[in-house]
Amino acid sequence: MSDPKSVITLLHGAGGAYMHNLIKEYFLQLYDGFGEVGLNVLDDAAVINGIVLTTDSYTVRPIFFKGGDIGKLSVSGTVNDISMMGGDPIALSLAVVIEEGFPKSDLAKIVESIKRTAEDAGVHIVTGDTKVMERGSLDKIVINTSGIGVASDALEYNFKVLSRTRSVKYKWLVPMNIKDGDKIIVSGTIGDHAIAILSSREGIEFESNVVSDVAPLNKMIKAVLEVGGVADAKDPTRGGLADLLNDWADKSGLGIYIRESEIPVKEEVSSAVEFLGLDLLELGNEGKAVLAVSPEMARDVLDALHKTPWGKDATIIGDVRKDMEGVILETVVGGKRLVTRPTGDPVPRIC
């Protein structure tokens, strides 16, 4: 087994503690002070002169899975990274690295999926790049999408509402806006994507057909911004809820208290997690958002989520507290446990 102290391992790309430490040790030194929201924030997007910019590479295995494929995933993931900053996504680039011998019929399916998902999100594919590598030097196909977006009237209104109850330094959705008392909302059931990937990859059939939740969420996020009071938003992808909430706690300097009984999860996903011995909070998702919302607006935001197709199962799962540190989970039996940042994703290559 490779030593993660001396070489790069799969743990370093899994969204947990190893990946965060790698980024801080090597890549954070590239920060030179540029950007309204710059590299130092270590978020999924940056803001430069009012433009939201993000980039992401997709290596999911298998490339076709229950509920989606690498094409739908690549567009949705990049659209969501822009949206979670509060940007209105406009255009994407598309870079594709293909293994020699890859079937053209599969490429046609992926391109059609990219086109359909971009149309659903209302974004445009405007430029790209194509490379082919020797047979055996790549696992089928890798896709990189970069995207740009701009602030919308909905974002401006959101912070107008939020500013009634607090001083706001960043007029973008970032963890530094989170304050004591904010409610934590999850837009829907968690763990769907990771379990769908496992099912497709390993051929495990659960009692019901679990499908990925992968979807572009920009229209849902715009709907809640039009209500106002959202301090931050983020999608719980690699590392799941556990990584996301620990990131918020670290960057806000506040504690987060969540209740296991309030976390929405499909019964078949819960059964699969128990059967496989996984931690639900560490599983990646590709069509869910977590919101930190001012307590005055939390119920209105929840109502707005319920009116969208992507947020009908949204639930308030906890709140932000200044009198504690880290992330604490109240279990279904009334106990409490510390939720730490995962070492890595228990299901690698889910995105």
Automatic annotation (TrEMBL):
One of the protein's GO biological processes: protein maturation
Sequence ranges assigned to domain PurM-like N-terminal in this UniProt record: 43-151
CDD domains on file: HypE
Stored Pfam families: AIRS, AIRS_C
Cleaved signal peptide residues: none
InterPro entries to which the protein is assigned, alphabetical: HypE, PurM-like_C_dom, PurM-like_N
Domain PurM-like C-terminal positions: 179-324
Entry's family note: Belongs to the HypE family.
PANTHER family: CARBAMOYL DEHYDRATASE HYPE, HYDROGENASE ISOENZYMES FORMATION PROTEIN HYPE
Full protein name: [NiFe] hydrogenase metallocenter assembly protein HypE
Organism of this sequence: Saccharolobus shibatae
Lineage, uppermost ranks: Archaea, Thermoproteota, Thermoprotei, Sulfolobales, Sulfolobaceae
